[in-house]
Design goal:
The protein is mainly alpha-helical. It contains four helices and two strands. The protein has two domains: about 10-50, Arc Repressor Mutant, subunit A; about 55-93. Helix content is about 65%, strand content about 5%. Strands 1-2 form a two-stranded antiparallel sheet. Strand 1 (about 55) and strand 2 form a beta hairpin. One of its GO terms (molecular function) is DNA binding.
C-alpha cells in the first residue's frame, strides 16, 4: 500500500499546456508519458480540462474557464446580498 505521507506532484500551468499542445500536434500519449514521466490518466485529465466547449453562438470556453466563471458568479451574488442588507440598514435610519 502507498505511504500516506507521500506528496502528490504538482505541475505548473505552463507545463500542463505544453503537454496538451504536444498531444494536439500529434504526439502519442504513450510517448509523452515516457518522455515526461507522467501517467496516461494525468495527461487525459489535462486534455479534458483544456478542451474547449462549443457554444451555439460560435463561442467556446474550457471547463476551467467555466469553473472560474461559476466562482466569480458566486462571489458577486454574495456581494450583492451584503449590499442589499446594507441598504436595508441605511434605509431605516
Amino acid at each position: 500500500m502507498g505511504n500516506t505521507s507521500e506528496k502528490r506532484k504538482r505541475y505548473h500551468a505552463e507545463f500542463k499546456e505544453m503537454v496538451v499542445e504536444l498531444y494536439q500536434t500529434g504526439t502519442p500519449v504513450k510517448q509523452i508519458c515516457s518522455e515526461y514521466g507522467l501517467s496516461e490518466t494525468t495527461i487525459y485529465k489535462w486534455i479534458r480540462k483544456q478542451k474547449p466547449v462549443k457554444l451555439d453562438d460560435g463561442g467556446s470556453f474550457t471547463p476551467e474557464e467555466f469553473l472560474n466563471l461559476q466562482k466569480e458568479l458566486h462571489r458577486l451574488k454574495e456581494e450583492n446580498e451584503i449590499l442589499k442588507k446594507a441598504m436595508a440598514i441605511f434605509a431605516k435610519k
